[in-house]
## 1
Amino acid sequence: MNNISSVVITLRSADNCEDIALVVAKIPNCEVAAKEGDKIVVLIESADFDSELATFRALEQIEGVSTVAMIYSYQDLDSDISKANSNDIGEIVRKIDEMDIKDIKYNGNPNI
């Protein structure tokens, strides 16, 4: 696992803390670290950021959950950095510079 994070789940009611903690514990990559009152602390281990985000979203969807707050997040970016450094960025930029402007298509959103 490359990503480790922790979240604090705040419940709508402390009455169902045990039941919700059981639901959380069944979600892949989740471990209930602590629970008290209307709060549950969860550790998430995931292979990548997308998996981490999917787990976070799954926690938000549990009935009885009020909020999910990310407290800590660590991503091992060494492999991503290595991949980026192995690209021949000079060659890519040169090809872009040589392209006819009519052949360049932009699919982004300039209003972000």
Note: The radius of gyration is 21 Å.
## 2
Amino acid sequence: MIKKSGVFSLFLIVFALFSSAVSAQVKQGQLVDGIAAVIGNEIILESDIDEQMAYAKQQGINVSNKCEFLSSLINNKLLIYEAKRDTLIENRSTAIKEMADQKYNQILAQFPDEKEMLRVYGFRTGYEMKNAIQKIDSDNYYQGEKYKRITAGTDITPNEVTDFYNTYKYQLPEVKDEVSLAQIVLHPKLTESHKQELIDKLKRIKKDIQNGESFENMARIYSEDPGSASNGGLYTKIAKGKMVKSFEAAALNLQEGEISEPVESEYGYHLIQLIKKSGKLYDARHILISAVPNKEEISTAKKELDSIRSLIKDGKMSFKEAAYKFSNDKNTKFNGGIITANDGSEKIEKTDLSSTEAYQIAGLNKGDITDVFEGGDEKKKTVNILLINDIIPAHQLDINTDYERIKNLALNKKRQEVVEKWVKEQLPNIFLSINKRYSDCNLSDWQQKAIAK
């Protein structure tokens, strides 16, 4: 429903709540039991360390010891503390809280009930879990913004990249088997009769609401939007541009309390009720019926894509031209269909491919095109083909073939050095105290000095 969404990983942490008064009363050498460290007015709890270490291990990350984890958390909290004091960094506490509520509802939609979700994630109450999500998102935001401000303008020369490589080449990681892929993606089109079925269903729901049913209850029963269904379809303080254009246009053309006719978007069909407008923000409820294609519609899309594949195979059109002309994937169609990794590289580790993609390219060679196959998920079906642009066997990073990756490693190291220098400059002005139980840890010099006596 929201136009853009980031990748979200929820740390399974139980955060105890401390009032600002407690933070203000903490003095160096007088740490409250259960607190591992205090940086300015930011607190690191023993539970923060234990639970984040456990989460990291569950994700397959090599966690060596608690001391190193604490040291990393202290560095992060220092950036967060300074970011909150930086007047040039926007205070987004309200937006972060709203997003935390939406993420909570999205997670809840994946479970049969709230009790089961709380059991799996290790929280006692929904309030506690929402606060944990909000705290994690807030820390990530402020830490990231301060890091960007400190390292802004930091660049690296080709000579520095070469020097970095010559110094660390025997310590650089080995790259796993990789591939370079391009894709063409088609979204199966619903027939007019299928579209009318969805529209008629929403019209029946609207009639029930007009006859006395509440919009909120009907959204809980019928809406297929995981981000809002359990909340009665409600989105609050929506800024212009946040929702897809057709949703926003319909919502803003309503009077408060009025319900729209069925509205089509890339997600399906909506009934929208405007709750209120306040300046540039508005609240709205909606009921979403997803436009999931049926078998016949998927079969028609497969035949269409197979014809496109034949044009490419017969040399009548290049894969790049076909991707631009036919692909429905906005992220790749203007780039010859090329799929990029999270770091922007065209090389993708095979282990990062979906099981479907890995199966489709198995046994193929450079230049081959897969057969047409189904992709997407239960709510967003697609039909796809993949072109294997290259196959790269596992190898240790080499400056001749992996220059951009080595450049990024060198640049990150330089940025880290910039941050470390900045930290040392700020230390005289920041209150820092670490519980004496960590006196045997091999912490940095400035952290060791902060051990409570």
Note: The first strand starts at residue 35 and ends at 39.
## 3
Amino acid sequence: MAVTLGALVGAVLLSTFTVMPASAAPAGALRGPTDPISVASVGASPNFGYVKEGASVTRTIQLQNDGVDSWSIDPAPLSALSFPFALDSTTLVAGQEVMPGQIRSITVSYTAPAAGAASNRPISLTVADFEMPGSSLFTLTFEGHSLETDRSYFEVTTAAGAGAVDFGTVKLGETAKVSMKVLVRGIDPMKFADGQISVLNGAGMPVPGVTVSQSSFGAGGATYRPGQTATFELSFTPTTAGTEVGTLTVSGTAMSGDPEAKDFIATLSLRAVAVTPATPTPTPTPTPTPTTTPPPTTGPTAPGGNSGSAGTSGGSFGSGSGSGSGTGAGRTGSLANTGAEQETGLGLGALAVFGCGVAMILVRRFTRSRG
């Protein structure tokens, strides 16, 4: 029986129909007549990895025709996906030609069941060649592992352990600081960078006056293993009085090796109150009380002097007469206050007594001499 060259070539081609996932194809491999059908998975992996119990993760797997011939894939087997997996959508259409270089997508979600469960759902898709008769199978294996906690996560608190940031009341021109700490949990190391810290208000704008004054992350970022602690500091320097509220957000990148792993995000509420410093009231300078010199007080007018008394009759051998009259001009109050008038009166009285004494002595001597 004769075998033609064309039949021989066709037999060879039919025997070499393959479906190659991207992971099996060498990078930069040259597609030729021996690989007419090839399917490369260029999107997310169907392996969802480790997910916290009850959490849902959605991934889109992309299938690219990187072969020589056009092909089509019937999406019907995808409907066999069941909990914890679910088919959300696909652009695959039964019988529709997918030319070399074109891409079709499959979007699947995974909801982690009870902690510790491992889920595995292989789905085989039929790939039909559009250039010549023949088909092959391409298998996608959907996997997921449920954990009690996130595989990669962390906790953010103040250095004192508070679950919120409160700067308290800060005067304009002053600065308040709050130290923060990040404790890595889970089973994967996590990487942090300064650019992964933000403090935004309800409008999505940075809270005025709040900055990251220092951190252990560095501009290029730093990786911390589970159980290790990273630190950073927030400062608040207000420029206007009022109350500021916002949300502190810190994100960390899981270093699990999974390119589809998303950043874990932690948030804390933030509050700060700015007030205007009170202006001190100056102590008033006391006004000196003027000293008033009272006017001189005029004393009452002294009454006039008494009229002189009649002279004492002389003795038997002498006579004497005396008369006296006197008028006393009124003394001023100043003289009355100084006592000058009293002193003058005392002196005259003493003189009068002295004179009487002398007169009596003379009378006695005269009487003795006559006797």
Note: The longest strand covers residues 135-147.
## 4
Amino acid sequence: MKGKKTLKQLKLAVPEQEAAVDKFLTASGTFKDGDLRLNQKGLRLISEETETPAPDVKEIDLQPEDLEAIKVIGKGSGGVVQLVRHKWMGTFYALKGIQMNIQETVRKQIVQELKINQVSQCPHVVVCYHSFYQNGVISLVLEYMDRGSLADIIKQIKTILEPYLAVLCKQVLKGLVYLHHERHVIHRDIKPSNLLVNHKGEVKITDFGVSAVLANSMGQRDTFVGTYNYMSPERISGSSYDYKSDIWSLGLVILECAIGRFPYIPEEAEGWLNFYELLEAIVDQPPPSAPSDQFSPEFCSFISACIQKDPQERMSSLELLDHPFIKKFEDKDIDLGILVASLDPPVNVPE
């Protein structure tokens, strides 16, 4: 019978990435990789020499069965993000599911991100309270940022004034200082949708590295194109890159918030540039700048310090915290919470 395959043939047809994941699973359903163990009870980092659990940083005990799904609040390359509520405490969380039938290089990246989440203690990086593995999916229980992302904000108000930008930017820079100097991590995907805001006016970095690598490896070019927009010249052209790549991205994001459009699209242009036009613009053309007749010298200088084509000429996250633009508003009582409170929340949360 032509249409039927033998069991042996079916086994041979199993994708290589699924087989690669299988070797990291135990009979008890635990996902193991080096000193990382992840199962339904959660994540543990274990010293391979002593095989004793490392002390837990997160003290909140969350189990999958304690969480009820409210609604889907995001769809990314790696999976779905749901708003969930703890059945007994009533607390809201963002639950991100990552399918694990992926390539080996991506798996290694996810393991690195899980380890970073486990020990992350920075007020400007979104908190991962818990993570667990179940039925081929790694789930991250994340802090719910109830005012959405910077992308949600600029959709409503088009542009953000300098004082608010300075306050916002200072918080992002503190998060980048933590990732770059303490965790030695390049985010690689700084963009408006990865900078989240809550009703207190707190700004936090999320998705450091996972979604960009996932989208690229799984051939989902349409989901990865948006990330190309904020890539530094050295990265988009395939050269080696370092922490300064994140600084370029931040500069583009802040300039976009100020002028109300993506900096590489001329005001009269219709639609987005295609990838090759964007690549040529970023690599070959002079970098964008803030119009000096519309913005303060400090702001123009800040943008210029970020958007330098030569990474050696860009300031670091630590240096930028001392930039005159950031210092200019430090003694002013600028409350970002007042700005976001005036906007419609991206998700209407049930009482």
Note: The first helix runs from residue 7 to 12.
